[in-house]
Amino acid sequence: MIAVLATTVLLLVLAGCVEDGSTDTTEPVTETTQPAPDTTAASPGTTEPMDIPDEIVIGNPIALSGPNNAGASLTQIPSYDLWVADVNAAGGIYVEEYDTSLPVRIERVDDTSDVGTAVQLTQQMIADENIDFIFPPWGTAFNFAIAQDISDAQTPVIGCTVGSRELVENSAQYPYFYTLLNQYVDQGDALVELLADLGVTTVAIVHHDDLFGIDFNDYVGPALVEAGIEIVFEETYPLGTEDLSQTLRAAQDANPDAFLAFSYPDETFLLTGQAIEIGFNPDLFMASVGVAFPPYRDAFGPAAEGIVGTGAWNPGVDTPDAQGFLDRHVEMHGAEPDRWAAAACYSTGQVLQQAIEAAGTLDPVAVKEAMDTTEFTTILGTLRFENQLNPVYLGQIGQWQNGEFEIISPTEDRTADPVFPKPPWPEG
């Protein structure tokens, strides 16, 4: 019943963000401090009139329905829309080529949580001359699936919900694909160091059979062994699994100090709810995507206290406008942003804007060159891409403490010491 209740709460919360099956188009804010662009201006060095676009259009194939909608509706969609509102309220993006500022609009289409559909929509958007840039779909496998197409088409795309060994190790093969999210290598190293610091000696691991879970497990498993931490139970499960109680009981029988799940949101909620039902309460309980969602905290209430998640962001970090981002998100959407990838997704827009302004044009090749050479100021901090990857992310591991998702990674950016062992599940 707890698992069902948690899933129901998640779906109700998400219903207020994006309605499944709908097509959501973000219109530019009409209030602007800039005059309307002069569409009769002359091209530089000529007397010929130059066509000036009315707006910058960003295509966004993304899950408005299906299982990926949970993550998309709490990470990418609200953050993208907030960035559009902020940019347009400030007058748009200045494009030197046109000597004017242009408003931004997102043209969003449902990929139905199907990777083939996401690829097809991306290809259509690449070919559409009315679409200037593309924001990617949600999830590692989906981002990886479009990386080759956008690189072949020389259209720069910035991922904010992707962690992939293939993209990290072979970034040169996908020169137009960038990512702002911290990768499984950094999170995995921080996780293993944290477990060792806490004196954990045995772990149980479960993960889904998608690219994210496989990559994470393949990296963390050997690192745990090298650190002298014994893996006493390990199991893989398929995406879409609706009952993991038997897996949890088997993990419970192994009596580990820590339980680690490399999971997506639906599984994260399911695993937590069913662990509470069967009374599986290890000293450290960790899941991946979904733990940092405020609806996770709200769904489980006091039971969320002490639960650990991979990837973390906290409004108390020392970066420009961190608290302002959270405040405006709440004002616009009536809900808090997720405490991991939402900040990266908002920063996607900040990077794109600054790259366009540095390039002085909407030409995608010139914008890509600016991405490679510009230092960007974002709510994640000041960053410069290295092999299309962002080396700056303050939170690798987080934990719910007193209603806030604190950064507990063993670094100077830690916002709180870890609670260990976690409190027992509340009775009743």
Q: Your description of this structure?
A:
The chain has helices spanning 2-15, 69-74, 76-89, 115-127, 140-152, 165-169, 184-198, 211-226, 245-253, 265-278, 294-300, 322-333, 341-359, 364-373; strands at residues 25-26, 56-62, 93-95, 100-102, 104-110, 133-134, 157-159, 177-179, 202-208, 230-237, 258-262, 284-287, 308-312, 376-378, 381-383, 395-401, 404-407. It is of the alpha/beta class. Strands 10-9-11-12-13-16-17 form a seven-stranded mixed sheet, with helices on both faces. Strand 14 (376-378) and strand 15 form a beta hairpin. Helix 1 (2-15) packs antiparallel against helix 11 (294-300), helix 3 (76-89) crosses helix 13 and helix 7 (184-198) packs parallel to helix 8 (211-226). Mean pLDDT is 89; it is low at 1-9 and 11-40.
What secondary-structure arrangement, pairings included, does this model have?
Elements: H1 2-15, E1 25-26, E2 56-62, H2 69-74, H3 76-89, E3 93-95, E4 100-102, E5 104-110, H4 115-127, E6 133-134, H5 140-152, E7 157-159, H6 165-169, E8 177-179, H7 184-198, E9 202-208, H8 211-226, E10 230-237, H9 245-253, E11 258-262, H10 265-278, E12 284-287, H11 294-300, E13 308-312, H12 322-333, H13 341-359, H14 364-373, E14 376-378, E15 381-383, E16 395-401, E17 404-407
Parallel strand pairs: 2-5, 2-6, 7-8, 9-10, 9-11, 11-12, 12-13
Antiparallel strand pairs: 1-5, 3-4, 13-16, 14-15, 16-17
> What is the β-strand count?
17
Main sheet properties: 7 strands, mixed
Pick out the low-confidence regions: 1-9, 11-40
Give the terminus-to-terminus CA distance: 12 Å
Round the Cα radius of gyration to an integer and report it: 22 Å
Total DSSP helices:
14
Summing up helix and strand content along with how strands pair, one would put the structural category as alpha/beta
The gross shape turns out to be elongated
Helix content: 25-40%
Strands of the biggest beta sheet: in what spatial order?
10-9-11-12-13-16-17
- The chain-level mean pLDDT equals 89
Assess the beta-strand content as a share of residues. 15-25%
